[in-house]
Amino acid sequence: MTVSPPPATAAVPRDRTAPPPASGAGVLLVVGFVLMSLNTRVSFGQIGPLAPVVGFSPATVSLLGLLPPLCMGAFAPLAAVARRRLGEERGLWWASLVLVAGAVLRMLGMPGLFAGTVVVSAATAVVNVLIPVLVRKRFPRERVGTMMGLYALSMGAGSALIAAMVVPVTQATGTWQPAIGLAVIPAVLAAAGMTPQLRHQPPQPAATASTERNRRQHVARTAVAWSLTAFFGIQTLAFYTTLAWLPSILVQAGLGRSAAGTGQALLICGVAAGGFIAPVLAAKRTDQRPHILGAILVCAVGFTGLLLAPGATSTLWVAVLGIGLGAGQALPGVLYAHRGSDHDHVTALSTMAQTCGFLLAATGPILAATLHTATGTWTAPLAALTAALLACAAASMRAGHDPK
Predict the structure, then answer these.
(1) Quick one: how far is CA 358 from the chain centroid?
(2) Residue 286: strand, helix, or coil
(3) Is 146 exposed, middle or buried (0-12, 13-18, 19+ CB in 10 A)?
(4) Cβ of 305: how many Cβ atoms within 10 Å?
(5) Range with the lowest mean pLDDT among 121-125, 213-217, 275-279, 333-337?
(6) Which tens digits make up the pLDDT trace of 261-276?
């Protein structure tokens, strides 16, 4: 992504008045934040590597790929309720406990795998919405990009590590349940890491806050909210479709099953790298349109490479695609913080973009499977994803800047 000339200083939002945390409390906050971030996508990266090894049917893979974005979209509005009643810190702590329960449930055979995926996805929906609000509230503005980058980096690192271990554990034990059970470990660590934050007392809202909320136009009537939704939705559709089907795409391109699983881990490593770099660069600017375009174009290059030059160079295109998808997953957090006028507005923008965006993204894995079944190759799904990303570029521009 290109780096623009030295940044203009952004206006400090009215609600950013809290002082930075003391050093000890700050360390605990960062540790809890990282442990929560490590856990956020672990469960969703396990199915792709497992599918070619244990013989999950296309219908099973499609449904397990469909459930996370569908449930995250459906349950995203719960985050606003949790924030209003519990605050960000307690909301994230309770979400981490639900993540532990869901990770355990996923080990209990196929019914448990489906039910546990729903539970994990519901908890993750709350985490997705509350993380940008927590960062906006608890960290100085100049660290927002770094923290959102750390969030994406940790998220990708945790998912990549577990994805790389799934096939060896399955082969060593002869069954997939222990491999799925690996997700319990980061879930428990996330709950432990967020426990010290229960001592944080949320500040009382200002007397003018409710008046300002009442005066503000509903987010669904604003162009910026729909632009954010378009960018987040298409990027997330591409992400979850790739997560569900990349190993199968690589196997059909001529890679072995173990190598395809490694390709999934490489993708997630790329996601981690792109997810760290993009928000760090974007948060320094008042105009994020170049970063939005950069993320879209890098994704398009990765998909085009898999489409036109599979085989020996597949790993190169997987890495490029991962960087683009990671940037596309991490940038929305910065966009919410920059386009939102206060914590409530950030929550509203994040909730709308993720509710509508995840519901749109839920169609990706099943539509890709339908196209593959109809044509017998992955050419049509890859071409469709590339076209959708390019069409998204124009719709996403309003999300990248404030009107002059």
Answers:
(1) 10
(2) coil
(3) middle
(4) 19
(5) 213-217
(6) 677 778 878 888 898 8
